[in-house]
Structures are given as structure tokens and as C-alpha cells.
Amino acid sequence: MSVLRNSLQRATRQKLFLPIFCMVLVLLINLMKSASFFSIAINNGVLYGRLIDILNRGSEIAILAVGQTLVVAVSAGTDISVGSVMSLSACGCCTLLAGYGVNSTSTLVMPMALGMLGGVLLGGLCGAFNGVLVANLKIQPMVATLILFTAARAIGLLLCDNQITYIRYDPYKYLGNFIPGIPIPTAIFVTIAVISVAALFLRKTSLGLYIQSVGVNSRAAHISGINSGWICFLCYLICGLCSGIAGIVASSRIYSADSNNIGLNFELDAILAVALGGNSLAGGKFTLAGSIIGAYTIQAITTTLLAMGVSTDQAPVVKAIIVVIIVVVQAPVFRDWIGNRSARKLTIAKVAAESGSGEGVA
Amino acid sequence: MEEQILITMRDITKTFPGVVALDHAQLTLRKGEIHALMGENGAGKSTIIKCLTGVYERDAGEIHMAGIEGNIFNHSTQEAQKIGIATVYQEVNLCPNLSVAENLFIGREPRTKLGMVDWKVMNRKARKIMDDLKIRLDVTNILENYSLAIQQMVAIARAVDMDCKVLILDEPTSSLDDTEVAKLFHLMRGLKKKGVGILFVTHFLEQVYEVCDRITVMRNGKFVNEYDVAELPRMQLVAAMLGKDFDDLATIKPEGASAAGGELVVEARNLSHKGTIKPFDFEIRKGEVVGVTGLLGSGRSEMVRCIYGVDRAQTGTEKMHGKDLKINAPIDSIKAGMGFLPDDRKADGCFAELSVRENIILALQARQGLFHTLPMAKQNELADQFIDLLQIKTPSRETPLSQLSGGNQQKVILARWLCTHPDFLILDEPTRGIDIGTKTEFQRLVLKFASEGMSIVFISSEIDEMLRTCSRMCVMRDGAKVGEIDGEMTQESVMAAIAGGEQQ
To answer: What number is the ipTM of this complex?
Structure first.
């Protein structure tokens, strides 16, 4: 019994315990509700199933969470422009491919890869802009990114000549759907690629250490020989590039650039993913794995709600309630409170036992 | 026993993961006494206070207080305050943007019949409190307009007015100058007459002998003994704190201190940084230890910050090993072979949430560059090597730095620079706020490194500390270097130079 309790205690102290716990909880509720949630079938040569759906639909949030994690860690602030930048990248990409002012096209004016690259770079440009504001001009992250939060979507609309540009060219749909002959959604591969590159970069270089030291104490980092401003800029740049990639995936799903709807409210999900992952929004230490688990947890909640028949209008309410519970459980104040309660019970029990035995002797 | 006992703490035990912070510690505080709590860093002074005030909950032990039956458990500082235990910390925790009166009555403002704040009554009462304590100030003025000492006294006044029987002062004097300390002591003596029991934590021996009646000495979380101040010679106090016969600091003597013939390591001409330091020249030879002395704010720190490049020099040239050195950012000076231990440990040195290992290897990693990560095995080896060399007390190399005591944090930061093997190391107040044993160790280390060929700048507010280690001193006054002294230096000659008169 005590062995079990000890190992349980050790497990709860692990950094990734809570994110994983939340994820498992959501999946467990689904299991109780209907076991068919976990069934995966092959229809028309592609995989179908709720789990696949979560992995597929959660791609954008997971990609955004990678960049957002770094931004939060380095600057103790959030990049709230990521959703709008997604939309701008999508519009940029579609305009490059279709040509300015074209409403719908089935022939591309430039190679598809080049257009997509352009879109991603546009995202990177936005990230660089945010980075300069935050790292060089020392503007508060939320205020600095508020500029593109409001402006990027509008710029996207201008790029598309105030209309929705459709790319009716089959390979363009591959990224957000399926490549013929491969049963797994392509977005999952893109996500794996982005996460792998990020993880590899953090592991093989000292970027992770640099980001954490700047996030914990940028003055001390400067004195220790780290270019705090450059590291901060780099994180925003990476965040912008991630938004760009997510934007292209989102655009490919609907083979168009719908400026008003692509990436709408995604910044909130991305920030939430970071928080759910057990990362402090006050910066410093971070875990990328936590954020990614957080991203898929959010998507799992959304998918679950839709599967349970909650209407899309009401889903956010239920989602908010669940998120409140998860965030409260993770809050240090709450954990301390629980810890203190059990500790106090223990001391009271101990004191009672001591006084009891004392009386016995007397 | 004629004195009335206020508080007795017996067999207090408190453990943190991996560390026993308190091991059957005890403390007795009597009415109307000033009681010093002394011990090295990590002796458990703060922990026992926090157990008393409810910040921590003890694992075992008893606390009894006069007038209250049974064993006391405080679960929060508010509970402690209710039964008359008030604490004033080193960092004043009042609201600097409110008036003195507001700070005194915050949370318990006098109200009019309509439930509004009764400003007239509040200001009148506040004035009376401050008059009673013989502190002359305008209670309607904003708190931050007053010096830190006054702010601390307002914090004390607030505690006293809330009927405190026990007042805990946790290193209140470390950021005060002499006249401010005198004012504080005056206030403490007044409270003592009124029967308040004062628990006073400090590192300064002088102050203990000036104001305290009794001393409790702690070591490694254990109670060592309680002494009457009048009956305890200083050497014995230090011996009790260190737990060994004190091998006198005075035995440290710079050997072969003169390095006049050595190779010139750093040569600065006409460096300056606008607003902080006027143009100065500086040079240091191989194996030399140079002190920088002057009053606080005279430009000591600013001068070395300019040499190292934290504050970028706006005029002048710098040479290292005879080669021109252009410093745009600290990374340039690190690459050239400099190291800099800043004086504000918390703000400029510590990465509190990062592990001891990460804190140690950071500067070396920064010099290596982003793409040349030190292999984990190498990092572990370096961390272990310096934990061992500097005898850093830590549960493990992966422990967050914030869990170490002040002196050990300082050692970790020193290790950060030592592992870059600098030719020129700047130590700005390395011994501030750390206990006397570690201080001695630091001085020994400085002399050892110098004898191995490192050039070191050593800054300290304590002149005798520099006299023991330095062979030459730069004298600073009002943001400028006014001269240098060397040869036979004594406390008096250095003081005279600081005060003015002696020019190069």
C-alpha cells in the first residue's frame, strides 16, 4: 500500500503529470460515454475515427503551441497575433499562387511550393516585426502583438482584394487533407515535422538553455554573455514561422484563403495549450512536450463536445468550464492548499496520537 | 527566573526534500529583551522564524507563548499577527505609493459613520504613533519619498501599533547606512523599554554587541547555545557559529603580493560611461589583486561595469594582453578572458529557477556559442567539480538555485566564472550578506587564484577585507577615480584616501 502511495506521489511530482492526467481524463470520459470513440476504421482508403480526427484537427494548435511556448518562456508574455498571422499567411500564399485579384483559379501562376514558402515567410516577417517591438523597443508583448492581432487579418483581406480566393488545384488540398494512397491525414505529418525540428533544435543546440535563462533573468543572462535581445527576437521569429505553417495548413483544408475565418480565436487555444502543458505564463522554465499534449487536450475537448451533440454555439461555454477546472487544479495556490490540508490533517493526527499515548501512560 | 518568558520553542524540526533545515532547534525569547539570532548561511535562522510566523509548518516540536495555553500552530502570518507576532523583513513590504498614514492603517482604516475612511482621525492617530516613537515626518507624505530606514521604521511602527508582543527583525540593517542604523537602534531600545521582545537577525557582529542582550547561536539547523552578550567575547561567538576554533582571519596574508614585474593583463585608458563614471585609467598585471574602494555610490561598481562592458564605454580604449579590445556586449569580454561577479546577486547574477548545473555552465556555454552545446557528461563533470572545489552545499546538481542559501548561491555564481578560466576576474562585493566563514573562504580563494596567475579586482565595503587581499587600491569618489594607494596600507590610510586629500 505504502509502496503504491510512494510511487503515486513520485508520479504526481513529475512535471508532465498534470498535462498527461488531463488528457487521460478527457479520453476516459469518452470511453465511458461510448467505446466507439476509440474505433478507427478505413473508409475509401483513408483512416477514419475520432482519435484520428483529434490528431488531424489539433495540428494547427499544436504547431502554434510550439512557437507560443518559446515566446512565453523568453518574454513572460504572449503573442496574441498568431491567429491573425495565420490568416495573413494563408492570404499571402493564395494570392501568390492565384495572382492578385483572381477569385478562383485552377492553374497556378508559380510553383505551389514557392507560394507556400512565401506564405510561411510572410508569417516569419510578422514574427520578426513582433520581435523587434518586444526585444529592441521593449514594448510589452501583449501590446506589441496587439498591433498585428488587429492589422494582419485586414492586410490579408487587402492582399486578396477583399474576396475569398479559391485555389481549385488538387495538390493544394493535400496538406490539409490526404495525399492519395496515404491513409493518414497529411497535417499530422506536418505537425510531426515541425515538432521534430523544434525538439531537435532545442536538444542539439543550447537554445533551450538560453531561452530559459533570458526568461528567468535577462539582466543576468546579458552579463553571462548571452545576447538577450537576439534570443528574444529569435523566439518571436520562430513563433511567426509556426503561425505561417499553421496558416498554410488551415488554408489547404478549405483550399482557399478565407481571411475572416482562418485562425479565428486560435491565439487563445495556443496560449491555453501552453498553460495546460504546465508551463508558467510568467516565463522561464518550459516544456515543449507539455504544450503539445495541452494542444491535443484542447482539441480532444472540442471534438468530444461536438461528438456529444453539443452545438457549435454552446461548445465554448462547456469548454470554458472544463478549462477553468483544469487550470485551477494546476494552479500552484490550489496545489499548496491541498498539500497544506493533508499536511495539517497529518499533524493533527500525529498530535492527537501523541497526547493520546501520553494520557495512557499517565 | 525573574524575566518573563514570552516565547519558548522546543525541538522544532523541519525537513525539506533532501535537506533537514531544522533539527530539534530551540529558542527562548523574554519580555523586554533584544535577542540576536546568529549563525552562518543555511544555519536555519530564517527557517525557525518562518516556523514561528506561520510561513512554514513545522514537522515536529512545540511552541508556547505567554498568555496562550497549549502548543501554538500558526498557519499563516495573519494568524501569527493576531496573537502578537509581527515580522519586518529586509525588503520592506509596504505600499510605497501610499502615504505613511495609509500604510500604518491599511486594512484597518478608521471609518466615519457613513463607512467612509476618516482621514482626519487616521492622520491624527498616525501622527501620534510617529511622535511616540520620536520619528519626525509628515504622515501625509508618500512613503517612497522617505529613505529605506524610515520605511523600515514605518513598518515597525505599524507592527507595534497592532499590539505586537514579539517583533522579529530579519536582517533589517543590511541596506542601511550608519546614521540610519543608529536611528533604528534607538527605536528598538524604546520598544524594549515597553516590554516588547525583539528577535534580531543580522550578520553584523558590531551591531549585535551594540544593541543586543542575548544571543542564540544556530549551526546546521541545530541549536548551539544561548549566551549573554556581556559574557561572550567575539572570538567565542564566531567560534560557536563556525563550530570550530576560529582560525583568525588575520592569518591570511597576501604572499608575494607585489606583481610589479608581471605582464600587463588589462590596460584601460580614458574609459567613461556617461552619467555613471567619469574618464579613468586602469591597469592590472598578472597575478595581481587590486581593490576598488570608496563610499557607496562613489562609482566603484560603475567603474568595473564599464571595464567589463555591462555599461558600454563611450570613450577611451581598452587593451587585453596588449591587444586592442572592442567590447560591444559582455560576450566580447568573456571571449577575451574576463569574468564579472556582479554586486546585486539577485538581479544580476542568479537564475533562481534554473538548476545549479545550468547556473554553473551558463557563461562557458555562452562563450562556446549556440551550436556548440557542452555534452551533458561534461556539464555534469564541471558542476560536480565546482560543487566539490567550492564546497557548495546543495542536495544535488539539479536542485534549483533558489533552494540554496545566499552564500552558496554566491559560490555557484563564482563557479560560473571559474569554469571559463578567466585571466581577469572582477568580484564586486562577493562577500556581501554572507556569513563570516564563507567570507574567509572567499578571501582564501581569491589569494589562491591570484597565486595561480589570475588577475583579480576585488570590491568590498569592508576595508579590512580588502586590506587582507589586495596589494593596491583604486580610490573612487563622486563617480570618478581620484587616485591609487599601495605599499603599506592601513585602515586609517584608506579611510583618509576615501574621505579626500590624498591625490595621485
So the answer is: 0.83
Torsional sign, CA A95, A101, A102, A107? negative
- Under the banding of pLDDT at 50, 70 and 90, the label for residue B502 is very low
Residue A259 lies in a domain: yes
CB of A322 within 8 Å of a chain B CB? The answer is: no
Q: How far apart are CA B479 and CA B368, in angstroms?
A: 35
DSSP string, B316-350: EEEEETTEEE--SSHHHHHHHTEEEE-S-IIIII-
- CATH code: domain of residue A79: 1.10.3470
Domain boundaries, chain B: 5-245, 262-337+422-499, 345-421
Helix, strand, coil percentages (3-state) for chain B, rounded to 5, are 35, 25, 40
For residue A36, the model assigns a pLDDT of 80
From chain A, the residues in CB contact with B349 under 8 A are: 220, 223
Provide the pLDDT for residue A244.
Answer: 97
What is the pLDDT, as a whole number, of residue B260? 57
Mean of the per-residue pLDDT values for chain B?
A: 84
Residues of chain A with pLDDT under 50: 357-362
Cα separations in angstroms, B14 against B26, B58, B222:
12, 5, 11
Residue A270: its pLDDT value, please?
93
Q: What is the pLDDT of residues B395-410, one digit of tens each?
A: 999 999 988 888 889 9
Tell if the CB–CB gap between A216 and B57 is shorter than 8 Å.
Answer: no
Strand duo A104-105 + A165-167: pairing: parallel
Task: Looking at the structure, give the CATH architecture of the domain made up of residues B262-337+422-499.
Answer: 3-Layer(aba) Sandwich (3.40)
Does residue A89 form part of some domain?
A: yes
Q: Is residue A342 part of a domain?
A: no
Mean pLDDT: which of A86-90, B340-344, B480-484 is highest? Answer: A86-90
Superfamily of domain B5-245: P-loop containing nucleotide triphosphate hydrolases (3.40.50.300)
Residue B301 at interface with chain A, using a CB cutoff of 8 Å: no
Two domains, one topology: B5-245 and B262-337+422-499: yes
Q: Is B370–A207 a contact, with Cβ atoms under 8 angstroms apart?
A: yes
Residues A185 and A174: their CA atoms lie apart, in Å, by 9
